[in-house]
Design brief:
Layout (H helix, E strand, L loop, with lengths): L4 H19 L9 H13 L18 E3 L7 H15 L31 E2 L7 H7 L5 E6 L2 H12 L2 H4 L6 H16 L8 H5 L4 H5 L3 H14 L2 E4 L3 H12 L25 H10 L1 H19 L4 H25 L6 E4 L8 E4 H8 L2 H12 L6
GO molecular function, one term: galactosylceramide sulfotransferase activity
Keywords: Glycoprotein, Golgi apparatus, Membrane, Signal-anchor, Transferase, Transmembrane, Transmembrane helix
Subcellular location: Golgi apparatus membrane
């Protein structure tokens, strides 16, 4: 019996799925590669690709709360929202002081222009359900971000140089700090906020820092899960961004990003070895619970996506690299006449990127926020 090309491809896909299913038992894959392979094969059998006509329907989401977590690629993601809101003339919650504030209140943020409501908040601020909902639109989409806790701790210490750590004398202050914290925790049960910086941003209550209460910790994380529309994961940033684009119903060009704030500062006294990592896991109990929950949640969301998710992911990566290469080249050559045209796809309309776009891609976030303050509180907004 002869099989059509479609049947043969389908059979091949099923065989690949079965083979990869068993291989996956012996590997530490972060995405279900069997489902990925089968999904891509079936998707292409049905004739879909990035060359299909632009298919986005419905209105884009313009009301967004992004929980910016320091040293978790949050400045890179914040820049996405700054550029989008700037282009669309949306109203931002703009901090009175560089970097943001601890609460989304008038003491830390400028009030919105008269008779208007914040459309986007994306500066540093600790999450609090009531204060956020009091000043934001009812249909606001809530987006967070997390990072593997030890790498987050390492980056945070290297970037901020907290006195509680770097002020310790000796040639290994990190290990000494974590050892002291373990001794203190054994006596008091209190978990250090320096170890649990993500938990601070996500608004964990003080009692959760003072006791290792697994039930109450999980209860709060489940509350966050209900309130957050998506929590991005740094280790799967591109997958997270593609999911975010779908939730926000944006044209793909709006979520292209350039890497910002890469920490290059080194301090020979700051060492992060295996012993420190083991001690940190106990010290950062809240951060590990938070991270592991939302990594699993992200994987579940990916599995629930239609097969074209992986086509979009590949297309996004290719387009982003082309975008970033152009911008780095035009900026380094100071070519303010440079431009590049991108073709349309199922996820974006054709668009042109110029030197002006590139400047905003890499502008310092504090500088950009300052520009937006001048724009938002100019005569046309008041």
């Amino acid at each position: 019996m002869r099989y059509s090309t479609r049947c043969r491809l389908l059979l091949l896909g099923v065989c690949a799925f079965v083979t990869l299913f068993y291989l996956r038992r012996y590997t530490n894959r972060t995405v279900d590669v069997g489902e990925k392979m089968l999904g891509n094969i079936l998707y292409r059998i049905n004739g879909y690709s990035s060359q299909n006509p632009y298919s986005l329907t419905g209105n884009p989401v313009n009301h967004i709360a992004f929980l910016k977590v320091r040293k978790a690629a949050s400045t890179t993601v914040e820049n996405i929202f700054l550029r989008y809101g700037d282009e669309k003339n949306l109203i931002f919650a703009l901090p009175r002081h560089s970097g943001g504030g601890t609460e989304l209140t008038s003491s830390h943020f400028y009030p919105p222009p008269k008779n208007k409501t914040y459309d986007i908040t994306c500066a540093h601020v600790n999450y609090d359900t009531n204060s956020f909902r009091r000043v934001l639109h009812a249909d606001t989409k809530y987006i967070g971000i997390v990072r593997e806790p030890f790498s987050h701790f390492r980056s945070y210490i290297r970037f901020t140089h907290p006195k509680s750590v770097v002020g310790i004398p000796g040639d290994n202050p990190v290990l000494e700090y974590l050892s002291r914290e373990e001794q203190n925790r054994n006596k008091t049960g209190h978990m250090a906020s320096v170890c649990n910086r993500m938990a601070v941003y996500y608004g964990f209550s003080r009692d959760l820092f003072s006791k290792r209460d697994r039930r109450q910790t999980l209860k709060y994380i489940l509350k966050l899960d209900k309130e957050m529309d998506l929590v991005l994961v740094l280790e799967f940033l591109d997958e997270s961004i593609v999911l975010m684009r779908r939730i926000l119903n944006w044209d793909l060009r709006h979520v292209l990003y350039g890497k910002l704030r890469v920490n290059k500062r080194e301090d020979s006294r700051l060492k992060f070895g295996e012993i420190a990592q083991k001690l940190h896991r106990n010290c950062a109990y809240l951060d590990y619970q938070l991270y592991e929950f939302f990594v699993q949640k992200l994987k579940e969301k990916i599995k629930d996506q239609p097969p074209d998710f992986y086509d979009e992911l590949a297309y996004f990566r290719k387009t982003r690299m082309k975008y970033e290469d152009f911008c780095l080249s035009s900026i380094s050559n100071d070519d303010n006449n440079a431009s590049i045209t991108f073709e349309g796809s199922a996820w974006n309309q054709p668009f042109v990127i110029t030197w002006e776009h590139c400047k905003k891609l890499y502008v310092h976030d504090v500088t950009y926020l300052g520009m937006l303050i001048k724009k938002q509180y100019s005569a046309e907004y008041l």
